[in-house]
Design goal:
Chain lengths: 189, 328
């Protein structure tokens, strides 16, 4: 009789462990997927920038420095290694783009150019997508971390070596000082 | 209550309402068996089975083809077609913006991007439909695109995306089908009593069973006549809950409750009803397309019939959320 009860308890523990393990694996994969989403959007921004620079180049002949700064920042961001480095370089790229759009305000023919407006919308939207992808990643990574650290699933996490997911933070002080560059140029008041 | 508790509470409420609907269907069908067709030697629960089959069949059809029917009846056009056909640059930009915003919100919610549609109507409104996140569509009117700025449009799309994420689209589709089934059955039952062969048989039963059975029968018949009203009230109560929750979880996606609040203010100011959205799809929209006055009132009786909570309370709730986020 006692043997059966013990067997029952063992079976229950195994079922619980399998369920907890699968839940952790699921969350971990979602977290990794969330991280990849950020990469997809960053790459999209890198692809859009040459288009933008080519479109505005003709009208902004005198702003060569600003344009070069954007292209340089893009090249650096593309060459960045590791998340921490990448987030710093991407922050600098955001600032360079912000300066470009601020300068473009002085060129009425650019502001009314439909191609430029479309590119601006694309870039603004890509900025948003990067932001929302980070937000989603942080939410899901927090969920994963919580279930990794709370009792009783922390036993499974430590047994099978589930490492902590790093949250996305603003690492660069300069980026924190400039909150949200308005890229929309108030296209639709 | 935080968001997760709200979602759990809503799920429980959903099951209660579904159980109530099945009980209503069985009530109509089972009574039919007892009083009109039944009592013979070869007793077969005809009415109950037909009731369940109609309810199930309608729900299945709505889940499978309901979204297409809704989109067709509102003459919604897919955004890809519009983008390739439009030559006007400003309009094209606003379409592109809508498409981008839907993708942004899908990323924020961690869902696949739903199909995007535009309804050629000048009244600002929007709705979501489909059976799950993989088969979802979001439609907005041309009037909404014209009158809202980017932040406001984002708020509205986030609200619709929340309907997709919370599976409200599936729930409300099934509930609408069940309301239809209950109304249909109640109608048939009353008719078959008035004109059908059931009349004579039920009278005989009344004599057989004495006065008690007759009273039960009359009570049942009155209840059947009232059933459609009850079913609609249940559906509306559920719909109002879902709207509040979608407002809240939409604000969670954008982290900007004021965007949706100001969009709702603009939508409320546009008094004209949305003509191209039919009455049957009112519960899917962000604001009641019929522009009924009763959605404006907080008082108990009017509130029972409204598909949406009063605009003023929705806006107030969103502004309170904005106050909380800036306060901490």
């Amino acid at each position: 009789m006692i043997g059966w009860v013990l067997l029952g308890i063992v079976v229950l523990i195994v079922v619980w462990a399998v369920g907890g393990y699968n839940r952790l694996v699921g969350l971990k994969n979602q977290t990794l997927n969330g991280w990849k989403q950020i990469d997809v959007q960053l790459k999209r921004r890198h692809d859009l920038i040459p288009n933008l620079v080519n479109t505005v180049k003709g009208s902004m002949e005198f702003e060569r420095d600003t344009l070069t700064a954007v292209m340089d920042a893009r090249a650096k961001a593309m060459a960045a290694a590791g998340p921490a480095d990448a987030s710093q370089k991407e922050g600098q790229l955001t600032q360079a783009l912000g300066r470009l759009f601020a300068v473009a305000e002085n060129y009425p023919q650019l502001k009314s150019n439909e191609n430029v407006k479309m590119l601006q919308e694309e870039l603004a939207s890509t900025e948003n997508k990067i932001g929302f992808a980070r937000q989603f990643y942080n939410d899901i990574a927090t969920k994963y971390n919580i279930s990794r650290e709370t009792f009783p699933s922390n036993f499974i996490a430590s047994t099978f070596n589930f490492t902590q997911a790093e949250l996305f933070q603003i690492t660069d002080d300069a980026e924190r000082a400039v909150p949200g560059v308005d890229l929309t140029m108030k296209a639709r008041p | 209550m935080n968001l997760y508790e709200q979602q759990t509470a809503n799920r429980r409420r959903t099951w209660l309402v579904m159980a109530a609907f099945i009980a209503l269907l069985l009530f109509v069908g089972g009574g039919f068996d007892l009083f009109i067709s039944g009592g013979g030697r070869a007793f077969f629960p005809f009415g109950s089975l037909i009731a369940l089959a109609i309810g199930g069949g309608q729900s299945w059809w709505s889940l499978r083809y309901g979204d297409r029917a809704v989109l067709r009846s509102s003459a919604a056009e897919p955004i890809d077609t519009l983008l390739s056909q439009t030559t006007d640059d400003a309009t094209k930009l606003s379409y592109k913006q809508l498409d981008n915003i839907v993708e942004e919100m899908a990323i924020a919610a961690g869902l696949p991007k739903p199909a995007v549609y535009v309804v050629p109507d000048q009244d600002p409104n929007a709705f979501a439909t489909g059976r799950d996140a993989d088969h979802a569509s979001i439609a907005v009117t041309a009037g909404l695109l014209q009158s809202l700025n980017r932040d406001e449009l984002q708020g509205v799309v986030a609200h619709e995306m929340s309907h997709v994420r919370n599976l409200d689209i599936r729930l409300m589709t099934v509930v609408a089908a069940l309301v239809g089934a209950v109304v249909l059955l109640a109608d048939w039952t009353t008719r078959s009593f008035m004109f059908g062969g059931g009349r004579s048989r039920s009278r005989e039963r009344g004599k057989d069973g004495g006065a008690g059975a007759l009273i039960f029968f009359v009570v049942w018949l009155i209840a059947v006549i009232l059933t459609p009203i009850l079913a609609r009230m249940l559906a509306m109560a559920l719909s109002r809950r879902r709207e509040y929750l979608a407002d809240a979880s939409g604000a969670e996606l954008t982290r900007n409750p004021l965007g949706l609040a100001s969009a709702l203010e603009k939508i409320e100011d546009a008094v004209a009803p949305t003509a191209s959205i039919k009455r049957g799809t009112a519960h899917l929209c962000i604001a009641d397309p019929l522009g009924r006055q009763l959605n404006q009132s907080e008082s108990g009786w009017a509130n029972l019939w409204a598909s949406h909570p009063p605009m003023a309370s929705r806006i107030a709730a969103l502004k309170a959320m904005a106050f909380q986020t800036t306060g901490t």
